[in-house]
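Hello,

Our lab assistant flagged a job as stuck in the queue for most of the afternoon. It eventually completed. Since we weren't sure the result was trustworthy after the delay, we are filing this so someone can double-check. Below is the sequence as submitted and the structure that was eventually returned. Let us know if re-running is recommended.
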Amino acid sequence: MSEPIRILNLFTIMNRGGAETMVMNYYRNIDRSRVQFDFLVHRKERGAYDDEIERLGGRIYRMPSIRPGGFKIYQHALKKFFDEHPEYQILHSHMSELGYFAFREAKSRGIKCTICHAHNAPHFKDETVVEKAKDIMRWRFKHKIRPYTDHMFICGMDAGKWLFGRRNRKNFVMMNNAVDAQKYAWNEKRAQMLRREWDLDGGFVICNVGRFNAQKNHTMIIDIFNAVHAQRPDSVLLLVGNGDLEDRIRAKVDDLGLTDSVRFLGVRSDVNDILLASDVFLFPSLYEGLPVTLVEAQSSGIKCVISDAVPEDCLITKNIDVVPLEAGIEKWADAVLEYADGYRRKNTYDKIVKAGFDVKENAKWLEEFYINEYNS
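-- returned structure --
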């Protein structure tokens, strides 16, 4: 093969979200002399990973956003794109049901392989009118995309059943949300150095990594931390990420008088170090598919306190305590405080590899999958 085959990945924007981070993990470890990744994104602004994508040889194409009232504009842009780029024979969509328009256009042109990837298992409780309207569209398009999908990739069974339906379970292809396990492995000396450097030495450090949106349940994170802080004034909360609800959460932190104990770290490229420097990973999400951040956390050996809305597929190690969302703030705080006086943190590298969540072997599998599809 003189030139690598080029895979067109569909995303909204290449920021540091879970699906984006997972794909970048694979991209860094795949043999790019055989398989190269390109990206069709739906935002004008550059994403956090754009510079790295271009350094690795990837191309980024920008499309209009997909929204009601703009479908015709988007479909016209798709036709123009595929007219100009007939080289793509494999589309891998990470946009859930919104990949429908691209898949339909691709199949009308005889493109041989479409992969729809289920990354989440949303629930639809306690939503606004606007959110409920969006959900109606989601339900419509998740059924419409199925006939145009050649391969149904999933990160976990719940995500697959939501997007593709239970009756399609036999067609699911599990693609693990793999990480560079060695990069996250527990290193006590480095952890101590980081805590000194970041002025965390001697404190009880809790962290969360996730976008500031309703799903990640930051309001509850702050309530839990408030209860923990009342008993352990030396506790510190590290929040990694950004999003629409960040200002609201900052205001809540101020109102509770926790400003000096909660650090908003923004989008970070050193999540591995933040996990090393922390004592507990707090994750009371309202729903998940199989979150990359939880795989990263378990790879670091940190104790994780998570909600019962997180699928059991995520339980790779024994470092996880599951607490019902309805258990109440005090019970959540008690679960976190179990580790306030320390614990023996172990290297979980071998367990992550054995469970199939190290990216190196997974990248080889994906590479062969693409090549076989291209040559079929």
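-- support follow-up --
The delay was a queue issue, not a problem with the job. The result is valid. Residues 207 and 238 are 5 Å apart (CA to CA). Residues 129-145 form the longest helix (17 residues).
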